[in-house]
Input
Amino acid sequence: MTGEGHTAEGASPAALTWRDGAVPVSSRFDDPYFSLKGGLDETRHVFLAGNGLPSRFRDGFHIAELGFGTGLNLLAAVLLWQAAGIAGRFRFTSFEGFPMSAAEMARAHEAFPEVAEVSPGLVAAWQRGARRFAVGPADVEILEGDARAVLPGWQGRAEAWFLDGFSPAKNPEMWGEDLMAEVGRHTAPGGSFATYTAAGFVRRGLAAAGFAVSRLPGHAGKRHMSAGRMPLPGEDA
Output
């Protein structure tokens, strides 16, 4: 890790240092929480556009995510929903093993002035310990713990997955075939996933889980990312 910052006061389970005073980095996985070349732009390119959003949005749409982190993906989804003028509400379920503190989350959001309007609602809910709360049109549920243990017992099925764990090279447990199979099992017919990684073992695991997997251009000079769709009944994979 280059350009290390200091460890945050009141350290949380996230075990952070701060690069250049603004970018949170996991000491546990030696990996930044968002792109050093525009984290919000990467979220929009990978997770939103990669899942065909906002064109698929509708009242009751359900997004699920592996790796809540700073909550930036949630905030970007809220802003996109609002900008698109979608009626109704959407659900957002995220699985997080090492949650940040509210202060750390707020500090991370300072790098993105565009989220200033929606960040306070998330930070305030987090500060009071809520893990089910609303942020604008989003009804949010955060499930804490190792996703390999928590996801199998989840009763939901998502229409879009944001797969946003730390790098597969540094956190392979979040990308294993068994967990990808659970992602597939918890995806609605016609549902989708998107992720920044194009690692071969991740793509193979998602294909084995039933997704038709595509490799797409990555963000900010990164060659590739991955996205995919769960075929509808009777449709070829």
About this structure: Residues 72-84 form the longest helix (13 residues). The chain is about 25% helix and 25% strand.
